[in-house]
Amino acid sequence: MFTIDLSGRNAVITGASSGIGAHMAEVLARAGARVALLARRKERLTDLASRIGNGALAIGCDVASEESVRTAMAEAWDQMGRVDILLNAAGIAADGGPTPEKIPYDAFAQTIQVNVTGLWYCCREIGARMLADGKGGSIVNIASIAGINGWPDGPTGYQASKGAVIQITRNLAASWGDRGVRVNAIAPGWFPSEMSEPVLKNPDYRKFAMGSAALQRTGELKELDGPIVFLASDASSYVTGQVLAVDGGTTACFGYSAEPESHRAFLSNVLPHGLGKHIGK
């Protein structure tokens, strides 16, 4: 079986306290990398670092804060010697649930601040250091198929933010490739996580998510392992500026259709102040 060895490489993973971030930290560590785990919930990071071993670092970081990112990235770089891999997995969907015409302004703004501005802070801090020492590196951003296709009644800020992640990826790949820094993105479909659990636990919506994929199921976290390690390593040395959809074929089909009516009815009942109800219907 073909394997990729990341021994001697140092990786920073944001959003490492749960979901895809935590899983990917373990995957990169198993491939041989030393990892620095970044997130707001440092107690979770400490536990994960202890399980991973191999000098794993737990560093508290709020990606929405410029100062917090600057401090955390400097600490990771200094303690590791340098960072060879940056995996940006931190993300939220604060505007999920309400219909677009009723999304609270602050929820939209918060989603953009974390998913777009926060990711940019991280890319800039590590990217500038990679460029300065001339040794190159690999940056992998976690986007989403929600940033590729339209999603009726989906979270507008989340969709916009993931589309922006894709464009940041392309811009930085085009800007930094001449100095050996590669930037790619993975666009997952439906995978289990703290963010997706409230939606996927609804039987009707789970059926919809599974039915929208060519493989007729949701993904398993282990199915992200190969793409992540591939893009992080020299196995993808001539790959940059690309967006790899790991979605069971959802974007190869029609993609998102309207949400199931029963799920919209469910949201209408559970969200306060009629936030889940359409205007004009």
Labels describing this entry:
281 residues, alpha/beta, Rossmann fold, seven-stranded parallel sheet, 9 helices, 7 strands
Structural features, described:
This protein has nine helices and seven strands. A seven-stranded parallel beta sheet has the order 3-2-1-4-5-6-7, with helices on both faces. The chain has 281 residues and is α/β, with parallel strands linked by helices. β1, α1 and β2 form a beta-alpha-beta unit. α3 (66-80) packs parallel to α4 (105-133) and α4 (105-133) runs parallel beside α5. The mean pLDDT is 92. The protein has one domain (10-274): Rossmann fold. It has helices at 19-30, 42-52, 66-80, 105-133, 156-176, 197-200, 203-211, 225-232, 261-270, and strands at residues 10-14, 34-39, 57-60, 85-88, 137-142, 181-188, 243-246.
Termini distance? 56 Å
| Largest pleated sheet | 7 strands, parallel
- CATH first level: which class? Alpha Beta
List the uncertain runs: none
- CATH-assigned fold name: Rossmann fold
Percentage beta strand: 5-15%
Radius of gyration: 19 Å
Do you know the CATH architecture?
3-Layer(aba) Sandwich
Average pLDDT figure: 92
Order of helices and strands: EHEHEHEHEHEHHHEH
> How many separate structural domains?
1
Strand order of the largest sheet: 3-2-1-4-5-6-7
Helix content: 40-55%
Outline type:
globular
Number of helices: 9
The CATH superfamily is NAD(P)-binding Rossmann-like Domain
Q: Which class do the helix and strand fractions yield?
A: alpha/beta
Counting DSSP E segments of at least 2 residues, the number of strands comes to 7
